[in-house]
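Weekly structure sync - notes
Attendees: PM, LS, DV (DV joined late)
Agenda: review two folding runs queued last week.

Item 1: First target. Sequence and structure tokens pasted below for the record.
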Amino acid sequence: MGIKLYYTTVTASREVKSQQAEVMRILESKSIKYETIDISVGGEIRDEMRSKSGNPTAVPPQLFNGDQYCGDYEQFSEAVEADTVEQFLKLA
């Protein structure tokens, strides 16, 4: 069990790249260990991310604690603002 970050190495979207980088930077600054899962390696990984998140159109970054869905970038960002990242990630 642990934090999983679904992301992509292949995207034309500057917004997605920026969001992914910000999530990684914040997790590292808080010394939260996480595993990255690159959805660009195959459609089945992307489908798994979408299925687990319950959103058929979900785009990275998406965060999970094990198989438990935590949320997307917007929700993560709100948790950062509220200083509730550990609760958001179901670590507290």
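Item 2: Second target, run right after the first with the same settings.
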Amino acid sequence: MSAAIHRAIRSINTAAEHPRLTRFSLQPPKMVEVEYANGNAYKLPAEFLRIYSPAADSKIRSVAVEQLVSLKQVISGRRHVGIMSGEPVGNYGVRLLFDDLHKTGIYTWDYLYDLGSNKFTLMRNYIKTLKKHGLSRDPPRRR
């Protein structure tokens, strides 16, 4: 095999390996804190976790945003969303219940690591998408 193929395989294997979770702390209603064996620690706000929910309906929305399929599918207005509770799912993740009653996503420890590692880029991209479509992080005002 060529050196390029070896580098690609090494890069895939490295990217696929996540450090072991050493601490999970739910701080309702505002955030989740996670720490990993490599020393990385992340504070993940409720809004961030809600908009990047791994639930199937949220994934469809994320794809739709990138393909500009429908504005109705962009998750907006979640600035003040809170986390009500969390329940363990096996030994690999947690299901969070948000105060907007969203509860279908299972956040694996690896997914939380990826979110934490890319938090600023993901949030910046989310805000750009909202602005591009004239939407807001704030919930709509009641009339």
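Discussion on item 2: The beta strands are 21-27, 31-36, 41-45, 83-89, 93-98, 106-108.
Action: LS to circulate a short write-up before next sync.
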